[in-house]
Amino acid sequence: MRVHVVSDVHGNAEGLARAGDGADALVCLGDLVLFLDYADHSRGIFPELFGVEAADRVVELRTARRFEEARALSRSLWEGIDRERAVEEAVRKQYAELFAAFPTPTYATYGNVDIPTLWPEFARPGTTVLDGERVEIGGLVFGFVGGGLRSPMRTPYEIDDEVYAAKLAALGEVDVLCSHIPPDVPELCYDTVARRFERGSAALLETIRATRPRYALFGHVHQPLARRMRIGATECVNVGHFASTATPWVLEW
Fold first, then answer.
1. Residue 58 lies in a domain
2. What percent of the chain has pLDDT over 70?
3. Which chain positions lie within coiled-coil regions (predicted)?
C-alpha cells in the first residue's frame, strides 16, 4: 500500500489535483483555505478584499506578535462590511475548486483555518471527512482529530483543550494518528521563519506516549525546527507545507 499525506494546502488546488498520483489513497490534514499568504501578500481572501498594502501591515504586526494592533487594524477594515457573508462567499469559492481536486479515495480532517460547517456541501463521493473518528486503510487503522487549540490568532476552527482531548480519547489505539496540529514538543512547534511557537497539544503528546501508534502525522507549523522525531515507539512527522512544496509525504507498507 502507498498513501500520500498532505497538510496546509492553503489554496494550492493545482498541486492538490496531482497529490494522489501513484497512491492508493490520499490523506489530507486540513487547512485548505488561503486567507493570507505570508510569503506572497497578494494571495488570499484578505488582500482580495482589502489590497496588498493592508495585507503587508497585518503580516508585519502579526509577525511582531502585536496581535491586538493587528486585530484593531482588521476591525477598522471590516467596518461597514458583512464580514461573515464576505468570508463565507470567498471560502465557498476556494472549497469548490479544492474539493473538486481531491482524488478518490481521500480521507480528510479539518485544519484550524477551515470552516467545518461548509465541508458537507463540497465533499463528493470518494472523500471521507473524519474528526475524532477512525478508518481502516490497507489493514492499518488511521485515527483523525482535526482543528487547532485556542490561540491569539483566533482562527475559525479553534477548540477548547478539553474538547480536543475528548476527540483523541474517542479514537482508542490506532496504527497511524493523524492530526492537524503537532504534539506539544518545542522542536515540533517552533516555526523558524515566523519565529514563534505555534500551539501544540499536550493531550496529543500524552496519547502518543500511552497508545504508541506507529506514526503520528501532522502539519500546521510551516517551517518547523524539527520535521520529525521519535517519541518512544512512534515516528512523529510534520508532512510539510503543501502550499509551497506541492509534494505529499509518502507512507508505504
1. yes
2. 100
3. none
